[in-house]
User: Fold these one by one.
Assistant:
Number 1:
Amino acid sequence: AQSVTQPDIHITVSEGASLELRCNYSYGATPYLFWYVQSPGQGLQLLLKYFSGDTLVQGIKGFEAEFKRSQSSFNLRKPSVHWSDAAEYFCAVGVGNTDKLIFGTGTRLQVFP
Amino acid sequence: EPEVTQTPSHQVTQMGQEVILRCVPISNHLYFYWYRQILGQKVEFLVSFYNNEISEKSEIFDDQFSVERPDGSNFTLKIRSTKLEDSAMYFCASSAIRNTEAFFGQGTRLTVV
């Protein structure tokens, strides 16, 4: 069965530091890959997506993610974190034979000034 | 920017009561979804809806649940007889094409007491 793993439950970084949030998936073929962000009390906002092509994708708010087939990973990165980036980040996969997105358990990002 | 809207933002109901959660998807989208997130857990797929019928549902989506698109704009989730374990944040989402990026609403927090 397909699954998504976000190994880091909680990450704390200083403002201005770089960030990498990890995501690994389990699926036989290349899935569609997404990162969503959820600010407190808010819904899920799409940060970026990968369907095919260039394995480095750019998203909103200065985020990027790189698809690595050999590692079944889709890690999210940002070179310099802002305090407003504090939120919960969810990696999700979509597979070709189903409508649903499968979400990881999320990583809560805390940013210190 | 078009968005998915959900009402109410918070609903408290007594166990055994029926609730209807409402959603207005993005107007030119054809695929509609409900997901839920129990506090502290991952976002889980409930059901997808296309062409006025359910296209896929999860094991969670039992006979207590139903969905409807009554008037071409609203998309509703009904829980017939709520249980304590139905307490969760319920997210509506829509997409233009199957299995591409889904746009999520802000969620309805359902509390069953």
Number 2:
Amino acid sequence: GAVVSQHPSWVICKSGTSVKIECRSLDFQATTMFWYRQFPKQSLMLMATSNEGSKATYEQGVEKDKFLINHASLTLSTLTVTSAHPEDSSFYICSAPLEWGSGGYGYTFGSGTRLTVV
Amino acid sequence: GQQLNQSPQSMFIQEGEDVSMNCTSSSIFNTWLWYKQDPGEGPVLLIALYKAGELTSNGRLTAQFGITRKDSFLNISASIPSDVGIYFCAGISGYALNFGKGTSLLVTP
């Protein structure tokens, strides 16, 4: 089945550095990718929507300059957390909309990235 | 996106028991999805519902799309220890995916 491969699965970085998270769609093209953030024991919060070849759309309250999104190809979207601080520590997950042969559709998720900023 | 009302927040049951959880919304959705998330992993789709009144099964799981299109429930029959995890409902309206707050399920042998 269609899979979104997310990498890395976990990363520890120093405060002030930048971290890049990649999501690749395997065996399907993702013109749109959604980026979520999840705090412990909470639901997923949509951060932004990336569209291949155009600028990302950010949800209210999400800093564009802090969370840089690039969707340069139909199979790759990246989220870069710039100048990371401890409060950016969280679980980040990407998701792509998908249609399957029976006429149904839904969203498939990456396996998530645990970011810890020290 | 808007938050769905998902209940219960957590459940602690014995192996073999049946489980039921539900989601409600003040808005109409075109599609309801149910996901399971294991610790440190992304959500995995369990069941997708596309029509009001639709009842769909996936093994021991059964889910229904409410007639009003504002609610959905998920039942798990004869629970087993590997059912442990967090279950999320999600409603699609247009292109946006709206999540419930999740139901944490614990199953004791």
